[in-house]
């Protein structure tokens, strides 16, 4: 494929996930029953009508060869390989930050796309520089701004919660002070009454 042919094409949307594919021979022998093999799959979406599912590593190897032969855009292949590496690292939820996978503001396709690119938390997405927005897609700027807005709301909510907690603590401290003063007054009154009785 010529460079002109490559430039005219639009990069397909690529996402990764695990799927059953064939049979795991070793596991089947040990279990004494057929055990399916679970392998990484790539989901390639060219348009809303075309979606292809293939074993990921075989597909990536083929695309790398096609790039060497000039049949595929090498920048696309590099990006897909980076996506795959990031996806493999992002299978578990991150310990710090708000996970992208549980962020209710996103649909499933956006979650897959962002995690495949290595953005595992809302905090990471909020820090994407302008130069990397195109990698996310046409909605890259919108998603980054949404992440920033969400974090601002969370921070404002935490600040408000702290203010409320501080006011409540001040109220408890004031109540304790008043209670202490009342107890002292009661003790003084009792001491005064005792002294009065003794004099009488």
Description:
The chain contains eight helices and three strands. It is an alpha+beta fold and 200 residues long. The protein has a domain at 1-89. The longest helix is centred in the C-terminal third of the chain and has 60 residues, at 140-199. Helix 3 (56-68) packs antiparallel against helix 4.
- Gyration radius (Cα, Å) is 32 Å
User: What sequence of helices (H) and strands (E) makes up the elements?
Assistant: HEHEEHHHHHH
Can you list the strand order of the major beta sheet?
A: 1-2-3
Uncertain segments are: 1-7
Name the beta content range.
Answer: 5-15%
Main sheet overview: 3 strands, antiparallel
Number of strands: 3
Identify the notable features of this structure and list them briefly:
60% helix, 200 residues
